[in-house]
Amino acid sequence: MASANAPQRPLPAINEMNRHFWCGGADGRLHILRCTPCRTWIHPYAARCPNCRSADVAPQPVSGRGTVAGFTINHQPWIPGVAVPYIVAIVELEEQSDIRLMTDMPRTPVEAVHVGMPVQVWFEQDGDIYVPQFEAAGDRA
Questions:
Q1: DSSP 24
Q2: Is the distance from CB of 119 to CB of 91 less than 8 angstroms?
Q3: Is-above-0.85 flag for pTM?
Q4: Helices in the chain by DSSP H: which ranges?
């Protein structure tokens, strides 16, 4: 859970299209839409599968494991109270290479991050919202 002293991050407006993603972390797992007929993972939200055009899509949990596909180290203090430098990474989920999430990695030292680094999800809770973030795989049990 976010501490009382933590800077406030902008939070998403929750609706039926994104609830599975932003609130699904309550069970400790990352939830992504999946097409039932062709089994394609879909993110961000789409009402139809981009592969087979089926409307039979529903959220399912994924492993939460991935790989850093790219990153930058931000040194600019854009948000008051957010310490710099910090990592902004693109994580490719292991389930499907074209499912990528932008994330920060506050539990990983900036000098340790690298392309190809194995990572795992964890969640920062703010009320009913569970913001998925990533850290180096194996850092936490």
A1: G
A2: yes
A3: yes
A4: 19-23
Residue 103: closest CA among 130, 80, 56, 71: 71
Domain assignment present for residue 104? The answer is: yes
Q: Which residue has the tokens 């069970």?
A: 27
Q: How far is CA 114 from the centre of its chain?
A: 17
Q: What's the domain range around 87?
A: 19-136
| pLDDT by 10s per residue, the chain, length 141 | 444 445 467 889 999 999 999 999 999 999 999 999 999 999 999 999 999 999 999 999 999 999 999 999 999 988 887 889 999 999 999 999 999 999 999 999 999 999 999 999 999 999 999 999 999 998 554
Q: Are strands 86-93 and 100-104 parallel, antiparallel or unpaired?
A: antiparallel
Q: Is residue 5 part of a domain?
A: no
Sign of the alpha-carbon torsion through 111, 114, 120, 124: positive
Q: How many domains does the chain have?
A: 1
Say how far apart CA 61 and CA 41 lie, in whole Å.
Answer: 11
Beta-bridge mates of residue 34? 41, 58
Distance, CA of 99 to chain centre: 10
CA distance 121 to 33: 17
